[in-house]
Design brief:
Layout (H helix, E strand, L loop, with lengths): L17 H22 L9 E6 L5 H11 L7 H4 L5 H12 L38 H5 L12 H6 L2 H15 L4 E3 L7 H5 L5 E7 L2 H15 L22 H20 L7 E5 H6 L1 H14 L23 H11 L3
Parallel strand pairs: 1-2, 1-3, 3-4
Helix pairs in contact: 4-7, 9-10, 9-13
InterPro entries: P-loop_NTPase (IPR027417)
Protein name: Sulfotransferase
Length: about 325
Amino acid sequence: MSQEMGNQSRTDAFRRNPYLESMIERLNSLLQSRADTELERFESPELPLILVIGGPRSGTTLMMQWLAASGYFGYPSNLLARFYKAPHIGALIHEMLINPKYQYKNDFMDIRPYTMHSSFSSDLGKTEGLAAPNVFWYFWRRFFDFNDCTYLDEEKRKSADTENFARELAAVESVFEKPFAMKGIIINWNLEFIDRLFRKVLFIHMRRNPAYQMLSILKARERFRGDRRLWWGFKPPQYDALNLRTPEEEVAAQIYYTRSAIDTGFDSVADERQLTVDYEQFCEDPGRFHALIKAKLSRQGYALPGSYQGQSGFDSSNGPYTDSVKSLEAVYSGMR
């Protein structure tokens, strides 16, 4: 199967806008030198860093939207993410435009904060709206040498710019004055390495019924690549050594080996720094997981303010238990 991962392998709806990419690069180049000067007074986040991890189509975007909407966490919005080389400046602009604290005579009243009343919809992880959460991959790739397989071997770990990675996050945290939450699925295979970088961190591992997750990934391949035979998402390190004959076997392996890597990583992560969340249970009772997150952060010396004021539940996108789902269950069972 072809593994072409470039922009041209995307369907029209998901191709990058070259004009936008050029503008963003130009803007970031202008701001980066000033942003680097500001970094000198920061070292590492003082509050817990929240990293949402898990396989593709497991509910990580919903979790990020929920965390962002709660108001208890800073996060990389679609606006902030465009300042990936100067996120401290991006965070200041985000707050100036979105935080009601900085409004003057409703001059930005058409720009709304992301709240529990906002849309929780997304398109393969891409959210809509200036204030909605962004995956923030351009930021991550500044510091780590990731490719289609994001596992970092010893050489890549040594060359990673972890000092400035921590400085940038500390600078952003100082703007929001609350814990910073972002997607971390790009480091699913490097949890113990990232865990050692921060004094306080909480990894939230999203899991989903594997058969429904497989079905969702296959649909994502068709929408994003135009062909379910083409890969979509990050590859596990074992990929090249596996004898995978069908798209169904590929996505089963993608889920299985990603989960295995996270479970192994969690073996070396302290209990108060990890939380596993099943997507289906989260949809049924998100308030329960607010309490669990609050308890984990409390054990790290951070008191999450207030009580849960969000939705009582979300509609699961799993759908009915069809013959297709049943057949995917059988394929996934063969991975064990």
